[in-house]
Amino acid sequence: LFSAPAYLLEALTFPYQDGQMFVATIHAAGGNAAVNRAFQNPPLSTEQVMHPEKYLAAVPDVPRPVSIVIDAKPGWRKIHENVVGELGIRALFSQALGLERAEPVAAGWGGDRYVVYETGKDQWIVIWKSVWDRPSDAREFFDALEDFHHARYFSLNHPEKGDSGKNKKQPSADSVFFSIANQKQNLTIDRDTVIYLDVPDA
User: How far apart are CA 16 and CA 151, in angstroms?
Assistant: First the structure.
């Protein structure tokens, strides 16, 4: 089990670790009645499970709605749409960047949504839009996602191994570009919103 990819491992153990702590916190706050109410009004996000105080607050911290509008072309096929959530972001970064960095980055999550379209043979478009509690949280995520790409696909210490160094890590701006295999990626930030775009290189 522990040799499984970090994302899968997090998903499998989440109900037993974070879920158990969530129930224990709810019970400590209001006993069996509070636990019963939680079954009737379950958490709306992994964030609320990971931070029970956000669920118990007088005004609960609920996910911000995120919509993606895309002008799909004839022949495109939507193959997936979902939310990554705080848990998913923590799992995404933990293996490449370490849990010590992944946890605080993910903690600023406010909401997200991604959509995947198949546009041709071995070609796809991925759009991932996320919103954050504060612009500083968005910047922290933006920088972490940029570093994740370099750690995952290129070497920060050996940029010449990734497309002859054209993906060399540079000081972050508000928009960065990558080129991986036959796809191009663009990462942009605007105040509290970050958009990741992955499109065919043609």
Answer: 30
Residues 50, 22: Cα–Cα separation, whole Å: 7
Q: Is the model's pLDDT at 159 over the cut of 50?
A: no
Query: Phi/psi of residue 173, each to 5°?
Result: -110, -155
Q: Which helix (H) or strand (E) holds 10?
A: helix 6-40
**H-helix or E-strand spanning residue 79:** strand 77-82
Q: What is the pLDDT of residues 5-59, one digit of tens each?
A: 777 888 888 999 999 999 999 999 999 999 999 999 999 999 999 999 999 998 9
SS3 content of the chain, % helix, strand, coil (to 5): 45, 25, 30
From the list 114, 126, 128, 113, the residue with the least C-alpha distance to 200 is 126
Task: Report d(CA 124, CA 198) in Å as an integer.
Answer: 8
For the CA atoms of 134, 137, 138, 144, what is the dihedral angle to 10 degrees?
180
pTM (two decimals)? 0.85
